[in-house]
Amino acid sequence: MWGSGLTTFPTVDMSKQTIDKWLKSFLKQIFFVVGSNSPYNLAEFLHILVTAALTKDFVNNTTAKLQPAPNGETVFNRLLECTREKIELAFNAIMESTCKKIKIYLRNRKAILAFDTTYEPFYGNISSNPFWIHEYKPVNGCNGCFVFITVSIVVGESKFILGTLPVPIGWNQADYAEKLIRLARRYVTIEACLFDRGFCEYELIARLKKLRVGYEILWKKDKKRETWLTKELGKLRPKEMKIYIKEDGYFCKNKTKHYVRTRFVIIKQYSYKDDKEPYDWVFATNRKLRSQMWYIRGYKCRWGIETIYRVTDEVRIRTTTLDEVKRYFLFAFGCLLYNLWKFANLFLKERVSFSTFVFVFFQVLTEEVKKNYKPPENIMKLRSMIKEDFF
């Protein structure tokens, strides 16, 4: 297992220290600073969060199991002066350090960016936080959800979450996509941006054109709104591809209708590799690729992004909080754990699963907390009395 038999390799010890340093740095930038007389240090708070992630439990339950340890209220009190902006900056600072090492692996290749939204179910009264809790119900039994948008880098089989933002009610997709694209440009040279059906907006296309980036959006086949698409698909034979230029796509902003000239690639009944059945593919894209296969193959690069969220679900910290800042903190912490796992797999000699990585890091933190733990004064006095009287 990684972390036990491989500890003789200097690279493993170095990576452990690096990962430990990055996670503590993340907490240090976010947590409210307390005086030097505080009985708890960052390692103990980090130990609680990693334990809660590993056991997929609530922070309050975790602190009760780990006594002596700060309780759940104490952990979240450290977020009193935290803001969404602080969490965003802290996450970006860690990614900047990580990307310096990842660039060595990329060898100056252009990168594919994949954008996605993920939903955290909420089971309480959604009117309690009407600005951040969306009405969409991602799972049965929930009443709404918190939403996060992420941008991930895709190079071969390796994927990293470059940035993540919480999404309020009435958010503008184009604004959020632009912010994340500008962030990604600090780290990598962009080949193309990939979006799923949730991003079928002409304003987004207009913004992507303005940013001069390649893009490929899997377009929603809405028979009521996009009647032209139904007609064009009806004209094609299976596996046939057609380029269609739509001149009258538009969006409204500031009481003005803005038209967007959009290039669509329409592919009828095409199956690629492991597809069980042929499928009608429609892309809004400015990419000019060689054939049907290349458009589909290029888009499928992003499908591993859904895997990221299935993987991070393995170590998701549970919460019922209404506070969007605390929700964002816990989500960003999970994304950071995922990134550091991918980083470890890139630079270590042995690959491990995400849950194994978190478990080993949990062991490392447990040992550190035990080493640094000083018993309360009354216990120290009791030990001294026992030693004097009986030994």
Model description:
The chain is of the alpha+beta class and 391 residues long. It has a domain at 1-102 and 322-391. It is built from 13 helices and eight strands. The protein has helices at 10-30, 42-55, 59-65, 72-77, 84-106, 173-184, 202-211, 227-235, 292-300, 304-312, 324-347, 354-372, 377-390, and strands at 111-122, 144-155, 158-167, 190-195, 215-218, 241-253, 256-270, 279-285. An eight-stranded mixed sheet has the order 3-2-1-4-5-8-7-6, sandwiched between helices. The model is unreliable at 1-14, 378-383 and 385-391 (pLDDT under 50).
Quick summary of this structure?
The protein has helices at 10-30, 42-55, 59-65, 72-77, 84-106, 173-184, 202-211, 227-235, 292-300, 304-312, 324-347, 354-372, 377-390; strands spanning 111-122, 144-155, 158-167, 190-195, 215-218, 241-253, 256-270, 279-285.
